[in-house]
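Module 6 notes. Inverse folding takes a fixed backbone as the condition and produces residue identities as the prediction. Think of it as a translation problem where the source language is geometry and the target language is the twenty amino acids. Below is one complete input and output pair. Work through it position by position during the lab.
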């Protein structure tokens, strides 16, 4: 969206009675193809162009957004935003980011945009190849389909504090989902990858083959007795164990006093040697951006450094509430005030492969699928439904299902051992994680 248009919106908001304002312009184009059982099932095309406006009148703020950016519609949007702000309750922490914290150009080139625009026919070919490879497994009896997609986005932020920044990004993905059957039971398997550049994706065939293999491998899953044993979270699901950490160190949670980690800043939360990194400037990263969603200069953070929790994740509002400075983690859409989020989050790998973790643990549970997590945000008590494989004598023995694992996350984090099998699959990635003893609820 044109920089001058957004600057005009900000200027008009100030003239209409706002003390300060910021405008966001977002454009997106996407094309997705789904096939199932060898037949074209769905073609989705999206094109959007939207405008968001946040205004401040004293300590009151309001946000509005719309897809009509004609002069008449913009005038109504501005009028409505200022009127809403005048009626909003006062928020002593509401403000734009301080001028001295704003990012200044030239911004880093993060190589986020691949200009390729694949045709619907080429995406269909990829989706078919993924599904065909999954269905080629002799144990596959049905399919949830294969898909391929391509999208591009354009994001620009202009504020009355003098910030103006823009970046463009693309994304490409391939997925496959297969169902295996043996006449008595059915099990599903999935694989998928996304990347900023199309050439960074693995082959459709390899994704389909992995989906088929994972479904077939699950046949014959059984229940197990309740026990306490070592548990390994496979790298594909391991971030589900780490995501409650991110919510618990978010500035708004700390400011509300509703976090089980509210007293743990600068404490030894994990074992020595464990590092969790957030890096917004990772080249071609799926969470990368040259500045945060308030225009603040962002940077690489070691959130966990040698096991120690080093910081909260803060936007301007939560930082003011805590008497601290924003960490450049503001995240927002077109409507609503900014929240906080990570960018490219990585649990750094350890020294042992998953097979070596299994061998070291000897007997226990490898989790490959998780669903229905439950968390007490105040205490850290956590449980999750899961399925996977039981292992004995350091080797996988048989697939298992209908299990729940539970524990307190502070205790779990303190005993967590990262493996070496880190794979970059999204904007949050982890190697397999071993916890030496967890309560496992079975039959």
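Target side of the pair, the amino acids:
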């Amino acid at each position: 969206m044109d920089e001058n248009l957004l600057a005009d919106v900000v200027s008009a908001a100030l003239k209409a009675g706002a003390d300060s304002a910021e405008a966001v312009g977002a454009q997106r184009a996407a094309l997705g193809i789904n096939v199932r059982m060898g037949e074209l099932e769905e073609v989705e095309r999206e094109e959007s162009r939207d405008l968001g406006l946040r205004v401040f009148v004293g300590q009151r703020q309001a946000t509005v957004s719309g897809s009509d950016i004609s002069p008449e519609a913009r005038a109504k949007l501005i009028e409505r935003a200022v009127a809403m702000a005048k009626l909003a309750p006062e928020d002593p922490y509401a403000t734009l980011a301080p001028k001295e914290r704003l990012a200044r150009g030239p911004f880093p080139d993060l190589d986020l945009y691949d200009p390729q625009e694949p045709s619907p026919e080429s995406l269909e070919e990829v989706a078919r190849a993924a599904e065909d490879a999954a269905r080629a497994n002799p144990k596959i009896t049905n399919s949830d389909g294969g898909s391929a997609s391509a999208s591009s986005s354009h994001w620009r932020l202009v504020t009355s504090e003098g910030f103006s920044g823009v970046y463009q990004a693309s994304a490409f993905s391939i997925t496959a989902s297969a169902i295996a059957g043996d006449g008595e039971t059915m099990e599903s398997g999935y694989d998928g990858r996304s990347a900023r550049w199309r050439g960074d994706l693995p082959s459709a065939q390899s994704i389909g083959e992995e989906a088929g293999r994972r479904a077939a491998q699950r046949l014959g899953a059984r229940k197990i007795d309740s026990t306490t044993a070592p548990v390994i979270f496979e790298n594909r699901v391991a971030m589900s164990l780490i995501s409650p950490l991110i919510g618990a160190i978010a500035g708004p949670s700390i400011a509300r006093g509703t976090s089980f980690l509210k007293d743990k800043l600068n404490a030894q939360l994990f074992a020595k040697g464990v590092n969790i990194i957030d890096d917004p400037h990772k080249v071609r990263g799926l969470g990368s951006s040259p500045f945060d969603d308030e225009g603040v200069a962002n940077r690489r953070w070691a959130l966990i450094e040698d096991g120690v929790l080093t910081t909260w994740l803060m936007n301007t509002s939560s930082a003011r509430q805590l008497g601290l400075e924003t960490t450049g983690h503001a995240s927002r859409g077109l409507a609503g005030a900014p929240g906080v989020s990570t960018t490219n989050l990585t649990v750094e790998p350890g020294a042992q492969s998953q097979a070596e973790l299994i061998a070291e643990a000897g007997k226990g549970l490898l989790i490959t699928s998780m669903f229905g997590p439950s968390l007490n945000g105040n205490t850290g008590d956590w449980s999750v439904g899961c399925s996977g494989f039981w292992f004995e004598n350091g080797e996988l023995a048989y697939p298992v299902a209908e299990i729940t694992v539970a524990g307190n996350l502070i205790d779990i984090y303190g005993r967590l051992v990262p493996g070496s099998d880190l794979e970059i699959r999204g904007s949050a990635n982890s190697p397999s994680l071993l916890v030496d003893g967890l309560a496992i609820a079975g039959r």
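Reference fact for the lab report: The mean pLDDT is 96.
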